[in-house]
Amino acid sequence: MSSGFLDNLFSLQGRTAVVVGGTGVLGGALAEGLAQAGAFVIVAGRGADRGEARVAAIRAAGGDGAFVSVDAVDRLSVRALLEAAINARGRADILVNCAGVNSAVPYFDITEEEFDKVIDTNLKSTHLGCQIFGGHMASMGGGAILNIGSVSADKPLSKVFAYSASKAAVVNYTQNVARELAPKNVRVNVLCPGFFPAEQNRKILSPERTASIMGQTPMNRFGEPHELVGAAILLCAPVAGSFITGTSVYVDGGFTGMRF
């Protein structure tokens, strides 16, 4: 098999990718992976220091990108992000919606404010990204959107009820938006990670819970952020992923669900 065949199949050369939440652990790994596949990557998030550091890492590895500040749950801020991408690159070809937050508050103690924060950060941000960037991509003749779900979207997990509900909604939302945008040549898919050392997991991973997760993961370990990159490139690549839309890809080590 020639390297040219694989390059053509999975290349993102000449594409502009925007990774919302690219300042985080998983979003940052995805940003670096898309850059290695040839995309110019706009790392978008709240933390300028982390964003600039991620861009520096991308450039050190031979890629290119830029940081743009964004509040992922504010419509005007997300629209400004799109405008920044257009001003810098002429268009946005790929969007990764990776903003996310979890809550470790027990079920009977969670406040409306905390619940709303989880739903807004995980679901509303996905909606704003899809609507704003999806409209742009449709007007430009096509593109790819990758939303981030979770293994908990279809499996009950203790203590993460708000997070699980938001991610189940992201999966369903992705299917509906994929149907809406398919005639416009905009593909919309969702990547569902299992348990990774992401920031939103650290608050809930007690030693007991860690042991329980390991016991329900046949590969008997957590995922490493770079292990999400292959699936992400497949779903974003214009050639390899050309007929894939509305689907959910689980990268979870075979996770079967928590025992109670």
Compose a concise summary of this entry.
The protein is an alpha/beta fold. The protein has helices at 3-10, 25-36, 48-60, 75-89, 112-140, 161-181, 199-202, 207-215, 229-236; strands at 16-20, 40-45, 64-69, 94-97, 143-148, 186-193, 248-251.
SSE layout and pairings?
Blueprint: H1 3-10, E1 16-20, H2 25-36, E2 40-45, H3 48-60, E3 64-69, H4 75-89, E4 94-97, H5 112-140, E5 143-148, H6 161-181, E6 186-193, H7 199-202, H8 207-215, H9 229-236, E7 248-251
Helix pairs in contact: 2-3, 2-9, 4-5, 5-6
In words, what does this structure look like?
The chain contains 9 helices and 7 strands. The protein has helices spanning 3-10, 25-36, 48-60, 75-89, 112-140, 161-181, 199-202, 207-215, 229-236, and strands at residues 16-20, 40-45, 64-69, 94-97, 143-148, 186-193, 248-251. The N and C termini lie far apart (48 Å). It is an alpha/beta fold. It has one domain (3-249): NAD(P)-binding Rossmann-like Domain (Rossmann fold, 3-Layer(aba) Sandwich), CATH 3.40.50. α2 (25-36) packs across α9 and α4 (75-89) runs parallel beside α5 (112-140).
